[in-house]
Design goal:
heterodimer, A: 255 residues, 0% strand, B: 240 residues, mainly alpha, globular
């Protein structure tokens, strides 16, 4: 059973001890495994590939006509974020049943669009050779992985939504789940950019910090997402996300 | 993969307890309804018997309630995290399917439940020898002893089940480093959900001041972690 273990994924690449070391340093070229060259015909295969064969997805994103694949990945990301939004909205009910999914989905999409130009600039400055459509595909991949992982967290989030009245606690829990999902999403993005021949990762790392800050601020700009709906769909008062979090904490109560 | 004829002759229950990693890994490669039913049955019976012994001290009715709740918590934890666990495994380097991850978790829970089931006569005997619950029971050493025995038995069974799960993951991954990553992620997720489900399903041992009930009226108010936080704040408050 140990000779060739089918449960070991092709990614991250691992050197086989019996083979001589590859002559070129860096990651294994995309598409050297015939399985990576197989086209991705639908969203189900795209989700499977994202979880089990991310190199296949990265290879297909570099092929001509990748737009259809990117569109299907975007569709999955929108659908999954809307479903998770319903779970978020189930905490408060009422208007939040529809407002929370709209805010979660639009917040993620707007954050991505805001950050996309800076990603292109940062990666280009790092010497990466990637077209804008490839970069967009990788960012959509980040969104897709993040949101399908959020669906995995959804049963736990729903259970807690039904058993607590504390907005700050639920906010913390959703941020925790989003944070874990984002770490995996950023790993995918980093793995994708490893094939773009960038001289350093500093541009990508800087962008990751910017992306995190933008999404966190978006949660405040679109508030309330977790708590009960207010009179207006969007808040009338502008506030930075850290001060909003401090305001949400009731420091006089021990929870 | 060839199965040792000696293992094949043995019952599946003993194979499960021995947790021969190669054999158990082979179990996860196919959906065998009879085997799944066996594992679920072990969870219902083992955890149910332990739960009955746990609640029996308060009253036989409480024992029946806990006998239903305890296996339910285990099964709901496995099902609630099934999708998440199946996603995390390939992302952390172990390319297994939803079915394989669910079967691996069920197998480890079945081992835990089997051990709990084996402890249940001992716990039952302890409860049988304990004086009846009195209003001041929580200040007595008997209450402390019964609570401690419960915790030790559950901790031992949980550790044994998780050790077997790690061995199974190492067999499936062919690498201890990958197995460790997946194991820690699964353990964290299962502990997180399991703790809250246990909180919702309280009472277990029960309290003489409160009526015997399947779940408390406040079951869905507050959560385990808020309570832990409140306790920490209470303990560390020096101004009173």
């Amino acid at each position: 059973m140990n000779e060739s273990n089918p449960n070991q994924p092709p990614f991250p690449p691992q050197a086989t001890p019996s083979l001589p070391p590859p002559p070129i340093s860096g990651p294994r070229p995309l598409g050297d495994d015939p399985a990576e060259r197989e086209p991705i015909p639908n969203v189900i295969v795209a989700i499977e590939a994202m979880l089990r064969q991310p190199r296949r997805l990265m290879f297909q994103l570099r092929q001509p006509g990748a737009g259809k694949l990117i569109a299907s990945m975007l569709f999955v990301a929108i659908l999954c974020s809307a479903i998770y939004g319903v779970i978020v909205g189930s905490f408060s009910g009422g208007t939040q049943w529809w407002a929370a999914p709209v805010k979660v989905t639009s917040g993620l999409l707007i954050s991505t669009l805001i950050c996309l130009p800076s990603l292109y600039i940062f990666t280009s400055l790092s010497g990466a050779q990637a077209r804008l459509v490839e970069i967009f595909g990788l960012v959509v991949g980040l969104l897709m992985l993040m949101t399908i992982l959020l669906i995995g967290f959804a049963p736990v989030a729903w259970l807690f939504s039904q058993s607590t009245n504390h907005v700050a606690w639920m906010g913390f829990l959703h941020l925790l789940f989003w944070g874990i999902s984002t770490v995996f999403g950023l790993r995918f993005l980093q793995a994708g950019f490893a094939h773009a021949k960038a001289k350093s990762n500093s541009g990508l790392n800087t962008w990751a910090v910017i992306f995190l800050l933008v999404v966190l601020q978006m949660t405040t700009a679109l508030r309330p997402i977790v708590g009960p709906a207010e009179e207006t769909f969007l808040p009338t008062k502008k506030v930075f996300f850290i001060s909003h979090w401090f305001n949400c904490m009731d420091w006089t109560q021990p929870w | 993969m060839q199965t040792d004829p000696a293992i094949a002759r043995d019952g599946e229950f003993s194979t499960l307890l021995r947790a021969e990693s190669q054999t158990v890994a082979a179990w996860t490669t196919e959906w065998n309804a009879r085997r799944v039913a066996l594992h679920v049955g072990i969870i219902i019976l083992g955890a149910g018997c332990f739960g009955a012994a746990m609640g029996w001290w308060r009253s036989p009715t409480q024992g029946c309630f806990v006998a239903v709740k305890f296996p339910l918590i285990i099964l709901l934890t496995a099902m609630g995290n099934a999708l998440l666990n199946a996603m995390l495994a390939p992302l952390l380097g172990l390319n297994i399917s939803l079915r394989q991850s669910l079967l691996a978790i069920l197998t480890s829970f079945a081992i835990t439940a089997a051990i709990l089931g084996a402890f249940s006569p001992l716990l039952g005997f302890l409860v049988w020898n304990a004086p009846p619950m009195t209003p001041d029971v929580k200040s007595t050493s008997t209450y402390g002893l019964i609570k401690l025995v419960n915790v030790l038995a559950i901790a031992f069974a949980g550790i044994a089940g998780n050790v077997r799960l790690f061995q199974l993951l190492a067999q499936l991954a062919g690498s201890r480093a990958i197995a460790r990553r997946v194991f820690i992620a699964w353990l964290a997720g299962n502990l997180f959900l399991g703790s809250q489900l246990t909180w919702i399903a309280r009472p277990f041992i029960g309290s003489p001041q409160l009526p015997v009930a399947f779940m408390r009226e406040t079951a869905m108010k507050g959560n385990f972690y808020e309570n832990v936080w409140a306790t920490i704040v209470e303990v560390t408050r020096f101004d009173d």
